[in-house]
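Running this now, will post back.
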Amino acid sequence: MNPKLHKLFSELEASRRSLLDEMAQLPVEKLNRSQPGRWSINQIIAHLIAGEKLSVAYLQKKILAINEVDNTGIFEEIKMIGLIISQRLPLKFRAPRVVVENTTQTSDLSLLVKEWDSVREELRQLLEKVNDDQINRRIYKHVRAGKLNIQHALIFFREHIIHHYPQLKRLM
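Update: finished.
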């Protein structure tokens, strides 16, 4: 795996593991407690998984023609900075409809962890296929930021966890 992708993936996995470790001892009722119009802990985790799962599926399709797309440039770097800022601010965003429709509805954290493990393994295998000269290709499509590269995808996944962490912490 490309060293840059390996570093980003390792950091992403560390943040996921840390989050799951914090939740491991929580009682089932706390994991599933929600208020009207608000998500439970498990619903937030399912949302994070759905976003990654859909993104990995998209990347798997786009990697087949990775040599036919251009590299990202300064414009995408600027968009990425804006995306990071949006995830760090205490703003609420409506989840994209496709993510909501593909979010698992389960009250069992262990099933969510297995699903996330599976998505991350698919992501790891995908990253193994990306050559060093392909890491800047526009193969990731963020719903609001548009076409980005696979490094940006990993950064967004990390930022998405960071964005939801205060919400999770309050519920814990």
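The mean pLDDT is 95. More later if anyone needs it.
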